[in-house]
Amino acid sequence: MKKKQVLVACGAGIATSTVVNGAIEDMAKENNLKVDLVQIKISEVGSYEETADLLVTTAMTKKEYPFPVINARSFLTGIGTDDTKKQILEELKK
Questions:
Q1: What is the DSSP letter of 61?
Q2: pLDDT tens-digit series, residues 76-92
Q3: The whole model's pTM is what?
Q4: Domain CATH number, residue 45
C-alpha cells in the first residue's frame, strides 16, 4: 500500500495542527497505515496539490482541492472528535 501524504493545516501551522498531527500518527500506527504527515499553514496547501492524498484542517477553507478535505475543528472543541477520526481513518484506508 502506498504511503499517503496527509496535510495537517491550521491557520498558523503550529498549535492546533500539532494536536491533530499526533492523533493521526496514533491512528496510523494502530491500523498499520503508512502516512507521511506534513504540518503546514492553510495558505501553503496549494503547493502540495500534486502530491497530497488528504487535507485535515482546523482552519476554514473555501477553496476546492483535488483531494478530500476533512474539517478537524472537533479537535479544538472536543466535540465530535470520534466522528472526525473515523472520517480520517476511512480516507487513509482507501
A1: -
A2: 888 999 999 999 999 99
A3: 0.91
A4: 3.40.50.2300
